[in-house]
Structure formats: structure tokens, C-alpha cells
Write a structure and sequence with these properties.
Layout lengths: L8 H7 L1 E5 L11 E7 L2 E8 L7 H4 L10 H6 L4 H16 L5 H29 L4 H21 L8 E2 L2 E2 L5 H26 L2 H7 L7 H7 L4 H4 L7 H4 L20 H24 L19 E8 L4 E8 L7 E5 L1 H7 L1 H4 L5 H11 L3 H4 L2
Antiparallel strand pairs: 1-2, 2-3, 4-5, 6-7, 7-8
Length: about 375
């Protein structure tokens, strides 16, 4: 997309000034800082500045056993905590050659997709709230609470989960979780129309998001963008389909995409993914097999010398855990490829030419989790 305004170098030198957006939390969805160069209210340059909440999660792995490190992944992306927790377990299982019981794989998929829905509610509704619409956020928070109640019942936590275990999950689901998940599926399917009536058809929302922050297919691939942000630019890539893992190949689901690449497209992709996650959960519940939920593994995991890379799809895109083992109970090195880092820095390319208010819309539509960047 062409910039809304074109400014020559001479004008930049005479008329521009710099504005710090952040690192306060409102509108920047965390401790995020943008150094904006403006001409009036028109963005000339946008520089994302990170590092305000760095906690050294990757470095912590070098002085903790594999078991002691279990709580850390969920704290990298607290909105996709269950997905990150399971992803770390699967990476270690790949390194050790541990086979997971089928029932545990089904439970992992069910809980991960519930977590994906909860995350998308925050991502989509927080984006809309950044544009001034508070009511949809309250609706989304209400539905998200239903999911947190379900996950708290089996995992004991509502945000940063340690439900996964090497070889399976901590404990089996009970009948109340099963029935509650069924009720939630029916509830959300009945409420999706309300969301579209409230948001998607709203002319103010359309004017603030349509043709704003366009990420072309080429730009998305150049910056390594993944997740709904990539699929909103017309690239049909999802790790669950393109690099299948767990039992995802056994389920029928679509990968929603849009060709426009703007803020509206990214929102519509996330809303469509809610329905696909419901379909996956329903299929998993329909075919949930009996059996154990955890393989018999040593009390202390000691992988052989070597390394492995495991990729999975979080709510924000492709995540990769690269683990190097020296044969001891403590990882030699863990490196994480997180989607928010690549997704964030595409803003330096697409923000120039837009209004200052559009920066809030663009950032909200990309749905970045800052602690995932500042690992």
C-alpha cells in the first residue's frame, strides 16, 4: 500500500519532531516503547524499542533441571501459557524419544485450543478497545472467564500453566470438565453472531481498520511474520498443518486467510480461528480415547547428548524450542524462536505514512505479547 502522505527530505529536516509512545501499558499492550518521528500527526518513522521487561528465561534454563524449567515457558507468553507449556514438553520428549499416550495427546489438544480461544479474545477485543470500543472487550472477557474456569479446574492455574508433564499431562480430565467444555462450545457458537453484529459491522471500526497498516505478502515473508498476522496477508501457513505435530493431522479444520493484509483482515482471521478451534475441540471430545494420561518416564529426565528443534503454533504464530543437551540433567542451552519479535518489527516498515492514531490500531491488530519478546 502506498503511504497516505509523501514527504521529501528537506521537509523532514524542517518540520519533524520525535514522540515517545510508551513504555506505559495503556494502548501499548505491555511495557512497549515506540520512538516515533512525526510531521504533525503523520508518522515519518517508527522505531520499536524493547527490553523493558527482560527476565532472562533462556539463561535460566542453564541452571535448572528440565523439570524445574517447566514453569518458565508459560511465562514467556502468558496468554498462550498452556500452548507454550505443552510445546516445551514436546520438545524434550522429542529429544528423549518419549512416546506420549493417545489420551494425553487428545487432552493436550483440547486444552491448547481452549487456550488459543482465550488468547484470541484478548487479542481481538483489546485491539477493538484500543480504538475506543469498551463493550466488546467486556463481552470477550466474559467468554474468556468460562475457559479460565475450565482450565483452572484441571490445571490449578488461570494464566501461567504447568499442566503438561514429560510423557503426558499432570492429571486426567473429569466429567465436569468434559461437560463444561461441551457447554462452552454451544455457548460460544451462539454468541459469535453477537460479536460480528457489535464489531465487524460497525462503521467506525471499519473506517479505523480497513486499508490501515497493510502488510503485503512479500513484506510479511521478508520479516518472518507468522500466525494470524501472516495469514491476514494471504499466506496459508500454520505449523499445525504445514509441519504437523501431536495428533493435529487426525482432525479436520481449515486455516482461515485474508488477502487484504490490513488491520481488519487480521481481526477477521482471528475471529474465524475461534470457530476452527471449536471444531477441533469438539472432534477431540467426540473421539477421546480411554487409557493413561502419562507415560512411564524416569523421575529425573536426563536426555542423551545432542540437540533438537521442535516447532508449534501458538496464538501469535510459529514458536520453536531449540534444546542442546550435554547429557546432564540440566540443559546446556535452550533458545526460543518467538513470533511476536518478528511480528512487531514489521511495524517499522508499514507505519510511515499513517496517522499517530493508526499506530495504536496497527499494533493492536498484530497482537504482540511483550514478555514473549523480552525473554
Amino acid at each position: 500500500m502506498l503511504n497516505k502522505f509523501t514527504i521529501d527530505d528537506a521537509t523532514i529536516n524542517q518540520r519533524t519532531y520525535q514522540l515517545n509512545l510508551g513504555p506505559q501499558h495503556p494502548s501499548t499492550h505491555g511495557v512497549m516503547h515506540f520512538l516515533l518521528t512525526l510531521d504533525g500527526e503523520v508518522v515519518v518513522a517508527c522505531e520499536p524499542i524493547i527490553g523493558y521487561s527482560h527476565r532472562g528465561h533462556e539463561k535460566m534454563a542453564e541452571n535448572r533441571t528440565y523439570e524445574q524449567y517447566l514453569p518458565n515457558p508459560a511465562r514467556m507468553d502468558y496468554l498462550s501459557g498452556m500452548i507454550f507449556n505443552h510445546g516445551y514438553c514436546q520438545a524434550v520428549e522429542k529429544l528423549c524419544g518419549i512416546e506420549v499416550p493417545r489420551r494425553a495427546e487428545f487432552i493436550r489438544v483440547i486444552t491448547s485450543e481452549l487456550n488459543r480461544i482465550a488468547s484470541h479474545f484478548i487479542g481481538a477485543m483489546d485491539f477493538v478497545m484500543g480504538l475506543g470500543a469498551i463493550t466488546p472487550f467486556v463481552y470477550g472477557w466474559d467468554d474468556r472467564e468460562q475457559i479460565l474456569d475450565l482450565l483452572e479446574r484441571i490445571g490449578g492455574s488461570r494464566l501461567t500453566y504447568s499442566y503438561g508433564r514429560f510423557g503426558g499431562v499432570r492429571n486426567d480430565i473429569d466429567q465436569e470438565f468434559y461437560d463444561g467444555t461441551r457447554r462452552f462450545i454451544d455457548r460460544l457458537r451462539g454468541r459469535l453472531k453477537d460479536y460480528h453484529d457489535l464489531i465487524t459491522g460497525n462503521i467506525i471500526f471499519i473506517k479505523r481498520s480497513e486499508k490501515v497498516g497493510v502488510i503485503t505478502r512479500e513484506t510479511a515473508l521478508e520479516f518472518g511474520v507468522t500466525g494470524p498476522t501472516l495469514r491476514g496477508s494471504g499466506v496459508k501457513y500454520d505449523v499445525r498443518k504445514n509441519e504437523p505435530y501431536s495428533i493435529y493431522p487426525e482432525f479436520k479444520f481449515e486455516i482461515p486467510t485474508r488477502e487484504e493484509g490490513d488491520c481488519l483482515a487480521r481481526y477477521l482471521v482471528r475471529m474465524a480461528e475461534l470457530e476452527q478451534s471449536l471444531n477441533i475441540i469438539e472432534q477431540a471430545l467426540d473421539h477421546l480415547p480411554p487409557g493413561p494420561v502419562r507415560a512411564k518416564v524416569p523421575q529425573f529426565i536426563t536426555p542423551p547428548e545432542g540437540d533438537c528443534y521442535f516447532a508449534f503454533e501458538s496464538a501469535r504464530g510459529a514458536v520453536g524450542f531449540y534444546i542442546v543437551s550435554d547429557g546432564s540433567r540440566i540443559p546446556y542451552r535452550i533458545k526460543v524462536r518467538s513470533p511476536s519479535f518478528s511480528n512487531l518489527f514489521v511495524m517499522s516498515k508499514i507505519c510511515p505514512g499513517h496517522f499517530l492514531a493508526d499506530v495504536i490500531a496497527i499494533f493492536g491488530s498484530i497482537d504482540v505479547t511483550v514478555p514473549e519478546i523480552d525473554r
